[in-house]
Amino acid sequence: MSVDNSSLSRRGEPHQQVVKQAIHWLLRLRNNASNPKLRQQCEVWRAEHFEHELAWQRVQSLQNELSSNLRAVPGAQVAFNTLENSAQGLGRRQALKLLSGALLMGSAAWLGKDVVGWQQWTADFATATGERRGFQLPDGTRLELNTASAVDLDYTAAQRLINLTRGEIIVTCGGIDEASPFDRPLRVQSRQGVYEGIGARFILRQDADCTRLSVTSGLVLIHSPLGAGGVPTQVHPGQSYRVDHLRATLLPPLDMDVGAWVDGLIVTRNMRLGDFLSEVGRYRHGYLSCAADIADLRLSGVFRLENTDQLLAILPQTLPVQLRYRTRWWVTLERQV
User: Fold this and answer.
1) I need a surface site. Which of 83, 86, 100, 165 has the fewest CB within 10 A?
2) Which of 198-234 are b and which e, b meaning 16 or more Cβ less than 10 Å from the residue's Cβ?
3) Nearest to 152 by CA among 183, 190, 185, 115
4) pLDDT of 283-325, one tens digit each?
5) Beta strands in 183-261 (DSSP E)
6) 233: helix, coil or strand?
7) Which residues, listed in sequence order, are joined to residue 324 by a DSSP beta bridge?
8) 3-class DSSP state for residue 104?
9) What is the 8-class DSSP label of residue 319?
10) Cβ neighbours of residue 275 under 8 Å, at least 6 residues apart?
11) How far apart are CA 49 and CA 178, in angstroms?
């Protein structure tokens, strides 16, 4: 797969998807060391674009550093050999996660220098803080990832499963099975439930203690937690639910457009300032909050997400507040004096 220059990050780093491809090649070559055809295919991939070669060199460097760091620890040689032998019998994703565990032991300093976390590399699709990306899946399903989100795919002959491990996504069901959707249903799994889309477009957000579901078109079935008698909860367009480990609860009308982020917007309707800042904080690094005496101020409007500092600068024009920057990453709002 060729990648143009625009896929490089601002710092000139290879994109996370290209790095993941390089890791995939590394694992395949390690498991098939005597296969000259596979090695030739890898060399062709490396030559397709300079970013491929850059990613390959980064992964090779990481492997060498991991090996050196672990072998430098007394008694670690046996553990390292066990790790390598165990990885031989694992699938790609399991091997990546196993190697990531060793990486955290042996190369924490290397990871600390990299803007893209290892969790993003091992996920099938992922975004960094402030990043939003869209993907077209093989069955025609459209997948949009919001800031700091990650998903894994588990597509087999029997199922189409998207595993939401972090963050928020918009799923637009593809048409490959729409003529008979129950033959191979499209489902999304979060920590609190399984959600089946039938000709649907829906938003799923994984919070710390619950999953939030909003449906904009079609029908979504919440398979767990189960409703009365084990019957899945049906969610129709315009409805939103909060799902925890015990129940699925219908929510009142929301104070923001939950899907506006796909267009780079936050759209609010009489929203609390404290809640608004919590939303904005998802798209930037650092600390963002407000004094308790202004948290209940209300605001409505359309705000662009590409520059959160500019977004925050608008607030004193519409509310009696002032911004206080202790550092670029520590921002509080106080009542205007």
Assistant:
1) 86
2) bebbbbbbbeeebbbbbbeebbbbbbbeeeeeeebbe
3) 190
4) 998 899 999 999 999 999 999 999 999 999 999 999 999 999 9
5) 186-189, 194-206, 211-222, 233-235, 240-243, 248-250
6) strand
7) 332
8) helix
9) S
10) 255
11) 38
| Identity of residue 50 | F
Written as six digits, the tokens of 178 are: 């729409």
- Closest by CA position to 258, among listed 167, 153, 161, 170: 170
| Sequence-ordered list of residues with C-beta below 8 angstroms from that of 126, at least 6 positions apart, any chain | 16, 119, 120, 145, 149, 150, 151, 166
Q: CA Rg, the chain, in Å?
A: 23
| Coil/strand/helix, residue 139 | coil
> Treating both helix axes as pointing N-terminal to C-terminal, what angle do 50-71 and 16-31 enclose, rounded to 10 degrees?
60
Which residue's entry shows tokens 């917007």? Answer: 265
Beta bridge partners of 327: 330
Model confidence pLDDT, tens digit, residues 86-132? 544 445 455 555 555 444 444 443 334 343 454 555 678 888 899 99
The answer to whether 126 and 150 are in contact (CB under 8 A) is yes
Unique residue bearing structure tokens 């899946």: 137
Helix then strand then coil, in percent of the chain rounded to 5, is 35, 30, 35
Segments in the chain below pLDDT 50: 1-11, 73-76, 79-80, 83-84, 87-90, 92, 101-116, 118, 177-182, 228
**Which two three-digit tokens encode residue 164?**
């939401």
Is residue 248 a contact partner of residue 242, using CB atoms and an 8 Å limit?
yes
> Which two three-digit tokens encode residue 223?
């398979």
**CA gap 259, 267 in Å, rounded:** 9
Is 23 exposed, middle or buried (CB count within 10 Å of its CB: 0-12, 13-18, 19+)?
Answer: buried
Q: Return d(Cα 261, Cα 144) in angstroms, integer.
A: 10
